[in-house]
Amino acid sequence: MRVILLSFVFTLNWVVANSQSPTRNDNALERKLQAALANFRGDAGVYVHNLRSGKIVAINADTLFPTASMIKIPIQCGLFDKIHTGELKYDQELTYKDSLHYDDGIVGSLKEGAKITLSKVVMLMETVSDNTGSLWCQALAGGGTTINNWLETNGFHQTRVNSRTPGREANRNRYGWGQTTPREMAELVTYIRQGKAISSDASEEMYRNLGRQYWDNDGLSQVPPDVKTACKNGAVNQSRSEVVFVHAPHGEYVYCIITKNQKDESWTRTNEGSVLLRTVATTLWHHFEPKSTWKPAEGYEKWW
């Protein structure tokens, strides 16, 4: 009787563990994504997690890639940690100085002495990916080392800020502003979505910021405009990247795709990396929403 009971308990624990853990592979989706990546001239990694079914697809998902502007998600986390501890206030007024200038984005176009609230700088960092504003936020968060410590403490061991971070010059030369894996970046957005980053209220505001994306011409363009998404993307000459949380009708899913060592370094809509981002987004949408007949309006691409 004891043996039978122990066997029953073991079996029950196994069933519970496997039903709650996203370890089951979606083989059908993996075949579709492998086909999409097959002729890409460069390296690509994809991680997909369907939160309803628990199924995943991981293709080079633990390989290090450049973050490009996706690093602005960890920067936001570091900044909100400072707000949570009372070192900063979200609505505090900041004074712009010319010494902060990095490029001629919105924040970089401000005049010396101009006033702007921290919340607006954060919004510009996440929404239009303002670089001067993002570097300002990085400094206010305590710098790359402080942000990296937060990442490590919260279980993100591969995602790091490299630029303007002591001891990470070699990493900056190789990966640029930041580095991550497709799995970790998708999990970081999920962490925020689930209210686990800093606090539930901080996570909610950070997630709202990620839901206001100006750069919607790649993966987001392949999701119906009435479907809620949270997103951050990035681009440098040899890399394109995007992390997207989709509130799909039949279940939420999150994915991250990153490329590196691209042969195509063009800055047009037909760039191979950009095309791949759209292809992956389309593949995922129709895989998870097979009855959907939606597609981008004819001529949509002309706006980009």
From TrEMBL:
Record flagged with keyword Plastid: no
The Beta-lactamase class A catalytic domain, residue ranges: 45-259
Protein's name in the database: Serine hydrolase
UniProt cross-references to Gene3D superfamilies, sorted A to Z: DD-peptidase/beta-lactamase superfamily
One of the protein's GO biological processes: beta-lactam antibiotic catabolic process
One Gene Ontology molecular-function label: beta-lactamase activity
Catalytic activity, reaction form: a beta-lactam + H2O = a substituted beta-amino acid
SUPFAM superfamilies: beta-lactamase/transpeptidase-like
UniProt entry keywords in alphabetical sequence: Hydrolase
One protein family per Pfam: Beta-lactamase2
